[in-house]
Amino acid sequence: MNKLVDSADAAIADVKDGATVMVGGFGLCGNPENLIRALHRKGVKDLTIISNNCGTTDLGLGVLLKARQVRKMISSYVGENKEFERQYLSGELEVELVPQGTLAERIRAGGAGIGGFYTATGVGTQVAEGKETRTLSGREYLLELPLKADFALVRAWKADTWGNLVYRKTTRNFQPMMAAAARVTVAEAEQVVPAGELDPDQVHTPGIYVKRIVKGEQYERWIERRTVRPRPA
């Protein structure tokens, strides 16, 4: 039951070229920094990444993009990464843009075993192209299909050695649904405590979803866009 591994490199050692990988985070908030660095060091290529966004040009998942390790992005917001823009416009990167709520629900559906769901979001836009539609109670809806992955890389604030995870505040974002929607979920945690020390009522991701735990270190806690107001006179 002890799922703790020695290093981030060991935790992602079985990620192969061409894998589909979900990566937690919202902007740079809650990124699994150690696991992203390990993927970069490993040099795997042709990855399909499912994540809300692709970091910035130089931080987060942007590091993998600059190294040409990503073949396709399934994302919601990509406006902070100039390299993303360049690769997409030049045809080097395949992109599937998904409305943010739909992205979260597609991932959740993948983990819950739901075969698809109808949503009004995207009706009448390019998002609807090629998708089945249905009129329900006089309103048109799109059929959206679930998302699943070979691996999910998530970041927790605290974990126990059984793999139970607790997230902190907004770092929770997409991580719980991703942890449930992948064949192998790898979590890095800022704190790792012995099994049984977490209050069960505080656990956000039960350990049954988690295959491996690694103790995170050297967090930079990047800020995507620092905005401050003038100091009062």
Description:
The chain is α/β, with parallel strands linked by helices. The chain has one domain (8-115, 146-215): Glutaconate Coenzyme A-transferase (3-Layer(aba) Sandwich), CATH 3.40.1080.10. Helices cover 20% and strands 26% of the residues. It has helices at 8-11, 33-42, 62-66, 82-89, 100-112, 175-180; strands spanning 20-23, 47-50, 70-75, 94-97, 117-119, 133-136, 139-144, 149-160, 165-166, 182-193, 212-215. A hairpin with a 2-residue loop joins strand 6 and strand 7 (139-144). The longest helix has 13 residues, at 100-112. The N and C termini lie far apart (58 Å). GO terms for molecular function: transferase activity. Pfam families: CoA_trans.
Fold blueprint:
Elements: H1 8-11, E1 20-23, H2 33-42, E2 47-50, H3 62-66, E3 70-75, H4 82-89, E4 94-97, H5 100-112, E5 117-119, E6 133-136, E7 139-144, E8 149-160, E9 165-166, H6 175-180, E10 182-193, E11 212-215
Parallel strand pairs: 1-2, 1-8, 2-3, 3-4, 8-10, 10-11
Antiparallel strand pairs: 5-7, 6-7, 8-9
GO molecular function: transferase activity
Protein name: Succinyl-CoA:3-ketoacid coenzyme A transferase subunit A
Keywords: Transferase
